[in-house]
Design brief:
The complex is a heterotrimer of chains A (175), B (434) and C (100). Chain B has helices at 5-40, 56-66, 77-93, 114-142, 149-179, 203-211, 214-224, 228-259, 264-270, 292-305, 317-320, 330-355, 370-395, 403-431; strands at residues 104-105, 109-111, 181-183, 192-193, 274-277, 281-284. Chain B is mainly alpha-helical and 434 residues long. Chain C is mainly α. In chain C, 78% of the residues lie in helices and 0% in strands. Chain C has helices spanning 4-24, 28-53, 57-87. Chain C is elongated, with a radius of gyration of 17 Å. The termini of chain C are far apart. The chains are: A mainly alpha (175), B mainly alpha (434), C mainly alpha (100). Chains in contact: A-B, A-C. Chains A and C meet through helix 1, helix 2, helix 3, helix 4 and helix 5 of A and helix 1, helix 2 and helix 3 of C.
């Protein structure tokens, strides 16, 4: 009973704030709303018996990625960029497409998504189980991701350099 | 999840203890900071209100509540008002995962002893004095312009309630003394009382997760104020906190490797024995001895995490007025102030827990009863207070760094040192030294 | 225990909101945030199925998705900073130099 109360409260928070992310004109408000949405997703992970992933969700998404977003929005002072509503046909197609997608996928989820493997199965997701799984079965993806992150660091550094590494690119000294 | 009345009651008691500790950090440590600053700078410090200026913090609180609350015209109103709350929530919630004393089994019946009598009398006296002080403060500031009727009523009701609680406590004492011994009410007798609110399997990660949200309070405040100094403070703070979080997190990995679990109660239990050096000298089995590098890195990074000197770039008053809270006044400013001190308190408690054995009393095997609980609680408070005092001490000893030096220090010195600590611990564990 | 289907439906709703954002908005950062929302909806679905099947593989995928999302955020935001330096806007309609 208590679980259902938590689920519905945080599901509502997640959906409402996700809607604010998409609809709101001010990117700072969008970013903060996305943080709230991610936090309620972390609550969902706790309800799904995966507290370790919940902590990772908050540390990685709310604590690092969204701070980066907020940092860039503040740095570029994007809060006051207006976005006139143009291209009515595309807007209409986008809204109807998203709504149609939602209705279809929820219909099929209600119809045939859960496999019913026969009763609840034991689900251990503590740090030890995750660590063992990661360094035994998933050691290669783990190393690949570390290389990907290194590449991302180098890429971000080159892209955001003030004196452009691209020859012939116009340098903007005003900022 | 099921409802269990004794369990809920015990949890409420724990929450009460921790919240009263966390909320009292601010007034007590403002006093310590100001008197300590005076001591270091060879001047008296605040000494007018109360003996040794002890009531100064209450006077400050009254002043904050009565001041006018200004909102800049260009500010984003909603976020401007929410920002202090964003700042306060991580500071209050992180301490839920810190174990603050040795657990003990609650006895089925409790019989009267003189210690209980002394405690009850002391409680009555303290409540009476605090009530009188609250009434005096209310009548003193009530005459000032700007004091609302509501504030005065709150002050009066608080004061009278505290004075009335004194005879109530004495009555309980008299009744208890005549009864001799009573059974523990609500069926809490026989339960094991583990003094930590959230004893989760992800303990330390929970703390890092919640404290990583602290940057939003600063960033939102700085942006919503529509002030360039606030903005610079916010941008600096977010960059600094992200950078130092890495060193902070990595320096705890050694502790977790030695413990083999993320649960903070286990971290403390593992440190409660002794190491024996060269088969002769025995020292407490605290993590700070084998992991001295990690300890130092964590300690220094905690200064950056809490935005204290020498790393207080978010509010460097010589450079950017007051940083992210330039535009804040009245109680909203006080909330930022409280959040800063609470974050200091939590990180000091964490330092003590991870590296100094938490509630462990050195060279003494705490018994699992109420005496062990009290002794370990005092030990925990002493260790935490020591680290809190160092925050004050360093503030007047080390000058503020340059901002680029801060980043260089974080990325090029503390991050490699934290990694070195992991390597050393990984070498020590198979040798059996930890 | 809450039925897995409800978590899947929540994931579907969040994913659709992300789709809506990507299709209708033109502010680059908002589009990027919508993509992050979609990624998180997928993460929720992964963990819901992981509990349903009692296997850790779904969790491992979420871990790698988080790492990739972090890399993506670093590079993507660097691209937006570079774009803003050159064109003074992050409206994705304005970034049409390579448009045919």
């Amino acid at each position: 009973m208590f679980e259902y109360l938590i689920f519905f409260t945080f599901a509502a928070i997640a959906v409402i704030f996700a809607a604010i992310v998409v609809i709101h004109r001010n990117p700072v408000v969008s970013a903060l709303a996305l943080v709230v949405s991610f936090f309620s997703l972390a609550v969902m992970y706790v309800l799904l018996d995966a507290p370790f992933m919940a902590a990772l969700q908050v540390i990685v998404y709310a604590g690092a990625i969204m701070v980066l977003f907020l940092f860039v929005i503040m740095l570029l002072n994007l809060a006051h960029t207006e976005e006139p509503i143009t291209r009515p046909i595309q807007q209409f197609l986008g809204i109807t497409g998203a709504a149609g997608f939602a209705i279809t996928i929820i219909y099929y989820l209600l119809k045939a998504a859960v496999l019913h493997t026969g009763g609840p199965v034991e689900f251990v997701s503590d740090a030890r189980a995750i660590g063992v799984s990661m360094f035994e079965a998933y050691i290669f993806p783990f190393e690949a991701v570390s290389i990907l992150l290194l590449a991302a660091i180098v890429g971000a550094l080159i892209l955001s350099q003030r004196t452009s590494a691209i020859p012939g690119a116009k340098e903007n000294g005003s900022r | 999840m099921s409802f269990d009345t004794p369990d809920i009651l015990l949890n409420l008691v724990k929450i009460g203890i921790v919240l009263s500790l966390v909320l009292s950090v601010t007034p007590v440590w403002v006093w310590v900071e100001r008197r300590g600053s005076g001591l270091i700078q060879d001047r008296p410090g605040p000494n007018r209100i109360g003996p040794l200026g002890l009531i100064q913090a209450m006077a400050d609180a009254a002043k904050f509540i009565l001041k006018e609350d200004l909102v800049p015209a260009q500010a984003h109103k909603v976020l401007y008002n929410l920002a202090p709350i964003f700042g306060l929530i991580p500071a209050v919630t992180t301490c839920a995962a810190v174990p603050f004393a040795r657990g003990f089994t609650i006895p089925e019946t409790i019989s009267y002893s003189s210690i209980i009598g002394i405690l009850l009398v002391a409680g009555a006296v303290v409540n009476f004095i605090l009530g009188v002080v609250a009434l005096r403060v209310t009548s003193h500031f009530g005459a000032m312009a700007g004091a609302t009727q509501l504030n005065q009523w709150v002050g009066k009701i608080t004061g009278f309630a505290m004075i009335a609680s004194a005879p109530l406590l004495l009555g309980i004492l008299a009744w208890f003394r005549s009864a001799g011994s009573v059974a523990m009410p609500f069926g809490i007798g026989g339960r094991f009382f583990e003094p930590i609110i959230a004893d989760t399997s992800i303990g330390i990660l929970l703390i890092f997760a919640l404290s990583s949200l602290g940057v939003y309070g600063l960033a939102t405040a700085g942006w919503a104020s529509a002030n360039k100094y606030s903005m610079i403070g916010a941008v600096r703070a977010s960059a600094q906190m992200i950078s130092y979080e890495l060193a902070l997190t990595l320096s705890t990995v050694g502790v977790l490797m030695a413990t083999g679990t993320l649960r903070l109660t286990d971290v403390v239990y593992r440190q409660s024995g002794t190491f024996v050096l060269f088969d002769t000298i025995s020292i407490p089995a605290w993590n700070m001895f084998p992991m001295i590098i990690g300890f130092i890195v964590f300690w220094v990074a905690s200064f950056a995490e809490t935005n204290r000197l020498p790393f207080d770039f978010a509010e460097a008053e010589a450079e950017i007025v007051a940083g992210y809270h330039t535009e804040y006044s009245s109680m909203k400013f006080a909330l930022f102030f409280m959040a800063e001190y609470m974050a200091m308190g939590t990180i000091s408690a964490l330092l003590a827990t991870l590296f100094l054995g938490g509630w462990d009393v050195p060279y003494w095997n705490e018994p699992a009863n109420f005496v062990g609980f009290l002794a370990s609680f005092v030990a925990f408070l002493v260790k935490t207070s020591f680290f809190l005092f160092v925050f004050v001490w360093v503030r007047w000893t080390v000058p503020r760094l340059k901002y680029d030096l801060l980043m260089k220090l974080g990325w090029k010195v503390f991050l490699p040192l934290a990694l070195l600590n992991i390597v050393i611990v990984a070498l020590l564990i198979p040798l059996g030294w930890i | 225990m809450i039925p897995t289907t409800w978590f899947l439906i929540l994931g579907a709703i969040l994913f659709s909101l992300g789709v809506l954002g990507v299709l209708t908005r033109r502010n680059g950062i908002t589009i990027f945030m919508s993509i992050e929302l979609m990624v998180n909806a997928v993460n929720l679905t992964f963990i819901a199925y992981a509990r349903e099947l009692g296997s850790l593989h779904g969790l491992m995928w979420v871990f790698f998705i988080m790492a990739v999302a972090a890399a993506e955020a670093a590079v993507g935001l660097a691209i937006f900073i570079a774009l803003y330096r050159h064109r003074e806007t992050i409206d994705v309609d304005e970034a049409n130099l390579m448009h045919w």
